[in-house]
Write a structure and sequence with these properties.
Blueprint lengths: L13 E4 L5 H12 L3 E6 L2 H11 L3 E5 L5 H14 L3 E6 L14 H25 E10 L3 H4 L5 H21 L5 E7 L12 H9 L9 H12 L10 E4 L7
Parallel strand pairs: 1-2, 1-4, 2-3, 4-5, 5-6, 6-7
Length: 249
């Protein structure tokens, strides 16, 4: 199979990155745009979303959207269909992480986490599949928390394990259309959420990573590009971990 030239691996493809207004999602959207994609990003905070779109530049569309609200999703995909008429790549990145050990988990905590990380992801993929052209790619942003059992993050870890399961099932269900579904599971990544982490905690966390540092959002974006592009044309139902070896050895 002939590969696209460097920096044009997503040329003229339409890509949706949910939660593309900050952190990993923003890095993915920026990389996709640089690779020639027409990128749609979502976020709940309008000012942050507009700022993100301005920093990305290129063929970017920003849609203020709460992915947990069905009407917002309907409006989002309506805009994509009206503007582009199709979708080639979906990155399900919108998600949240909240501390809660077993003894302290409440129904509200569980509902918040699963509503965004699982329920919204499911219906995002369902709607995206309708617009997606045969041969498209879905990338589900999971986490190594889905299989390492981090104390205090049982609900979060379970929600990310659900995404890994979805990648397997949806691969089977969409294989007839040549749509590939894969999970991308980062380890600790140096995003704005780490700004509040103390130096001591950062050092402890870094000490558990064989490569001796936190990951960068751009490194996750590079992996997302691989899974979104034809470079991974024979990769389906898989999980790619970007964690510096933390959960691998």
């Amino acid at each position: 199979m002939k590969k696209a030239s460097n920096m044009t691996r997503l040329q003229d493809k339409v890509a949706l990155v949910s939660g593309g207004n900050s952190g990993i999602g923003l890095a993915i959207a920026r990389r996709f745009a640089a690779e020639g994609a027409q990128v749609v990003i979502t976020g709940r905070r309008v000012a942050q979303l507009e700022e993100a779109a301005a920093t990305i530049g290129g063929a970017i569309t920003a849609v203020a959207c709460d992915m947990t609200i069905a009407a917002d999703q309907t409006r989002l995909f309506g805009e994509i269909e009206a503007r582009h008429g199709r979708l080639d790549v979906l990155v399900v990145n919108a998600g949240s992480s909240e501390y809660g050990p077993l003894a302290e988990v409440t129904e509200a905590h569980f509902d918040r986490t699963f509503d965004l990380n699982v329920r919204a992801a499911l219906f995002t993929a369902q709607r995206a599949a309708v617009l997606m052209r045969d041969g498209g790619s879905m990338v589900l942003i999971g986490s190594i928390a889905g299989f390492i059992g981090t104390p205090g993050y049982g609900v979060y870890g379970a929600s990310k394990a659900a995404l890994r399961s979805f990648a397997r099932t949806w691969t089977n269900e969409l294989a007839g259309r040549g749509i590939r579904v894969n999970a991308l599971s980062p380890g600790p990544i140096d995003t704005p959420m780490f700004d509040a982490v103390t130096d001591e905690m950062r050092a402890q966390l870094t000490g558990r990573i064989p490569l001796g540092r936190l990951g960068h959002p751009e490194e996750v974006a590079a992996a997302a590009l691989f899974l979104a592009s034809d470079d991974s044309s024979f990769v389906a139902g898989a999980e790619l971990c970007i964690d510096g070896g933390m959960a691998q050895i």
